[in-house]
Specification:
With 188 residues, the protein is of the alpha+beta class. The chain has 2 domains: 85 residues, Regulatory factor, effector binding domain (Multidrug-efflux Transporter 1 Regulator Bmrr, Chain A), CATH 3.20.80.10; 82 residues, Alpha-Beta Barrel (Multidrug-efflux Transporter 1 Regulator Bmrr, Chain A), CATH 3.20.80.10. The chain has 2 helices and 9 strands; from the N terminus they run E-E-H-E-E-E-E-E-H-E-E. It has a 9-stranded antiparallel beta sheet. A hairpin with a 4-residue loop joins strand 3 and strand 4. The radius of gyration is 16 Å and the shape is globular. The C terminus is likely disordered. This is Effector-binding domain-containing protein. InterPro entries: AraC_E-bd (IPR010499), Reg_factor_effector_dom_sf (IPR011256). It comes from Isoptericola jiangsuensis.
Length: 188
């Protein structure tokens, strides 16, 4: 997918583990920087490997307080009783969850560049949704495919922005390619 191209696809369900909390918009960068290594450490404790880049899922984007989950996709569903209930109470803390990224029709695009441009990218996507007579379902996430951990130059950062939609019988632009499907640990 090219930068700025918006596509409509059927997203397959993907198991995930994360930490969910309420955060102000002005503290998201700090919360994310704290939670990504904590969730990665939790996965390691459980003997799991991330099946893709870290994500931020937004359960509620109204107002300045956001209900956000920071996590990783994983290959297999995780039994919640095996997980600790919480991870700290400080700004990087929250409730541990094992809720899959849903099987749902979505619009997605790749945002290239610094994170402060994500709001404009989301606005462009919302306009595209309206122009195609679709309706936002309130489920969205961002997958951080390349960021400051891989290169300090913001021009190289890539974020996949995903918005769940419904509407008239619009055919997806394309299904996910095999490379985008969840990995099969057995290689089949």
């Amino acid at each position: 997918m090219d930068e700025h191209e918006i596509t409509l696809i059927d997203h397959p369900e993907q198991a995930a583990v994360g930490v969910r909390r309420i955060a102000r918009t002005d503290e998201l960068a700090d919360v994310f920087a704290t939670l990504v290594p904590r969730v990665a450490g939790l996965l390691e404790q459980l003997g799991l490997r991330p099946a893709g880049p870290p994500f931020a899922r937004y359960h509620d984007r109204t107002g300045d307080d956001l209900d956000v989950e920071v996590g990783f996709p994983v290959d297999d569903a995780v039994d919640l009783p095996a997980l600790p209930a919480t991870v700290g109470n400080e700004p990087g803390g929250g409730v541990v969850v094992a809720e899959p990224l849903p099987a749902v029709r979505v619009v997605e695009t790749i945002h290239a560049g610094p994170y402060d441009g994500l709001r404009a990218t989301r606005g462009r996507m919302e306009a595209w949704v309206a122009a195609h007579d679709l309706r936002l379902l309130g489920v969205s996430w961002e997958s951080y495919e390349a960021g400051p951990e891989s290169d300090p130059d913001p021009a190289t950062w890539r974020t996949r922005v995903v918005l769940a939609v419904s509407g008239p019988a619009v055919e997806p632009s394309h299904p996910r390619s095999p490379a985008q499907q969840p990995r099969d640990p057995e290689g089949s």
